[in-house]
Amino acid sequence: MLRNVLGKTFRFLGYTVQYGCIAHCAFEYLGGIVVCSGPSMEPTIHNSDIVFSENLSRHFYCIRKGDIVIVKSPNDPKSNICKRVIGLEGDKVCTSNPSDFLKSHSYVPKGHVWLEGDNLRNSTDSRCYGPVPYGLIRGRICLKIWPLNDFGFLRASPNGHRFLDD
Q: Among 57, 73, 78, 83, which one carries the catalytic annotation?
């Protein structure tokens, strides 16, 4: 009797560990569901929108300008932020606010990206904390899941003029 109970308990623990490892690998390397909060990505992503974030792009260094990414916050490592990639390493970016009369520019250092929210007037982003190390990127958002009337791939940046090509 005791042997039977112990056998079932250890089998249950074994399956739990196996499925836990599979779930960890899926969420770490494939992707997951993310609930976005805050106004910084409006009108593309609104507060409480649910999106799917895939994580393979960051592992294969396939992040491009215009992608929306989930990043560990440079100000608070316990929280994640959602921003758009405006510049990659070596790119020239506009570091000033849209309302500034004189525009300032800088180059993104090696191993970093420049991130900005789509809602430039209400976003804490690289204009405040500077370039972000590539290693802080957690995943790339590729699909909006909720609300259902917005289901689908995300639209282009409303601030496309901020992308510099020179």
A: 83
